[in-house]
Amino acid sequence: MSKKNPEKKSNPGISRRQFLASGGVAALGSVALSGCATGGGEVKTEAPSTPKISRHRMLGRTGFKVSDISMGCGSIADPNVVRYAYDHGINLFDTAETYGNGDSETKIGTAMQHMDRSKIFIVTKLGIDESPDEQNIIERFNKSLERMKTPYADALMMHGIADQELVTYEPFHSACAKLKTEGKLKHAGISSHGPRGDEPDAMDTVLLKAVDDGRFDIMLLSYGFVNKDEGERVLSACRGKNIGTTNMKSATGLLVIPVLDVDNPSEMVQGWFDYLEADGATREEAIERIKAHLERQKPEHEKALAATQPFMKKHGIKTQDELDRRSYQWVLSNPDAHTICPSMPNFDRLDKFLPLTGTELSSSGQRFLDEYAQVYRSRNCIIGCTDCISACDQQVPVSTILRYAYYYRKLGRQKHAMRKYAALAQNQAGVCLDCSAPCVDACPHGVQVQAQLFEAHGLLTLV
Ligand code: SF4
Ligand code: SF4
Predict the structure, then answer these.
(1) pTM of the entire structure?
(2) pLDDT tens per residue, range 378-395
(3) Sign of CA dihedral 117, 123, 129, 134
């Protein structure tokens, strides 16, 4: 892994404010060239421009040169976010039928008229849990194309596979073969982030089987410094078969402990307000419930703060962003990880991530992450891991629940995470309260499993 850290910001692009003032991508050509005015009005620059993508990598045997940062489209606030990403050089968009129940694909479709289709790579995904037949897969895929207003997708992935037996699911493969013949699809792919519900297989078990299968040209995997070994087993196998890799959930570490500032709520606390108010609570009721929740969580939060504050002080870091930046640079430093694919719901996230293009982690950044991994071991479950699963006779899906907490805290997808958690019904972590917690000894990675589950349960249910 290279140690250089150029932090370069080449190809300065247009700022978000300029973008919106210009009316979007349609007007950007003239802005970028003239740097002054569009639509008859002066365009003002109030902040340094967000840089454009400066590095590309070959996406395995797809033969496509992909931007080193791509766009995870799990939730998109506005089609202009897609257009803004495109204008800044992002050329891979990762969506799915289920993202916003088709809304993500629809927003990509709205932005499509402003993009040169031949210069972008669209990945969409379909779940196959309910044993769809070939015709069902083809019909659903055609609807995805309609929503995205495109005659073809570059890749169709099996979505979130957690059962290795599904890797060879024939209706999916025969549907892909037909769609390729019709010119509607270029590549078959697969995504996995390990166990899900009652499907128990680890991410690397699933994806290594998919590598051996030979029919997948591209894979989306969880890869970050917290699950280094597991991720690198998959990346190395993909390198051997020249399979393209897109990498998600790369910044798994956490620094932030929630506090309630009613006038200036953090993103997490705002998520609670949104959820409770959408559920019919008044502002006052929401404040009271959040206060009560934080009070119950206080002992755990105090323990966490005692562990984290000396570390943060030593390294002079104050925000979660500083940890996230290093985490993404760690992945960007590995050429086998062809592109990072973080969730980019809004302009802020794009402005935050784009300056990382072309950069790699410095040696001091590596030391920082090494120390972080030691200090915070107890708080970071490895996404995709299944090592403690057999220790729980209550069938609590540890890795799944802690992944939902990740969606909540790190991806800002509070409602999505809470709904997913609610769907677990009797398998929720409430039962952990009366348990002697054999899962703690079963975790070889030092995670305080029970404490993390308590925290996740509180976060995902606000109780
Ligand atoms: S605390 Fe008990 S119930 Fe909860 S996950 Fe661990 S073993 Fe299962
Ligand atoms: S708690 Fe430990 S063993 Fe269990 S899934 Fe997380 S990292 Fe793996």
Answers:
(1) 0.78
(2) 788 887 788 898 899 988
(3) positive
